[in-house]
Each structure stands twice: as C-alpha cells, then as structure tokens.
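Lecture notes, unit on protein representations.

Consider one protein chain, 150 amino acids long.
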Amino acid sequence: MGRSRETYNKKEVRKRKEKKRQEKEKRRLERKENEHKSNLDDMIAYVDESGMITSTPPDPDKKKNINPDDIEIGVPARDNALEMNPLRKGKVTFYNESKGYGFIKDSETQENVFVHESNLTEEILQGSMVSFEVVNGKKGYSAVQVKLIR
C-alpha cells in the first residue's frame, strides 16, 4: 500500500480553512437570529432649533416664519461711514519715516487708514493729530491731503 501524499502542512491548512468556514457560518446565523426588522421611522433624524440632531420631531408651535429676502448670502457690504464725510480727523498710530508709510486711527469710526508720504502736505510724527481725506485705494481706504493739526 502506498503512502498518503497529503503532508502535515497541507492537513493543517485544510483544517484551518474548514474552521474558518464554520466560524463564518456561525456568525452569519447569529446575525440572522439577532436581526430585527427596522422601518423607515427608526432611521429618521430631526434637527432642533439649536441645530442638534434629535429623534423627536419639531414642535409646530415653535415654528418661525422667515422672509427669504431677509437672508444675506455672502459678505455684507462695507460700512459707508467713511464715504459720507471725506474730511476726517485722527491720530497717527504708526509712521515709519524710512519706509514712508503709516496708519492713522480715525477718531469717529476707530478704523485704521493707510497713509503714504506722497499724500502728506507737511511732516507728521507718530502720535500727531491730523486732518485728512479718505479715498478708496487698491487695497482699501487711504488717507490723502494729510495736514498736521497739532
């Protein structure tokens, strides 16, 4: 009689595959037993007035009517306070003489306005009170015709 051609390693591989197949079948049967029928109502989620997800539907008494025209999309327009009165007064918060530019803090709107030395009518220093006109430049508002008050 001849020897078996199946080696020990081949037997072990076949046993592992069979064990794996049985475990997989066992897990499938457990899932099938534990499976409960779900309906669409169990899957629905609601968002409350605070933006939180909840399982209870919203109260119709708390419903607010919103006019779609009141909704602003995008960046709100800039405040036109600087365009109203072009002649302003302010304090020089920063000025670099070597580079020739600085910033003036407007006394009414508290906004910083850029100033370049080419727009100065007289010498200014940091901390000086000045009067100036505001124009819209390439990168925002700029001060022109800057005059020293004191």
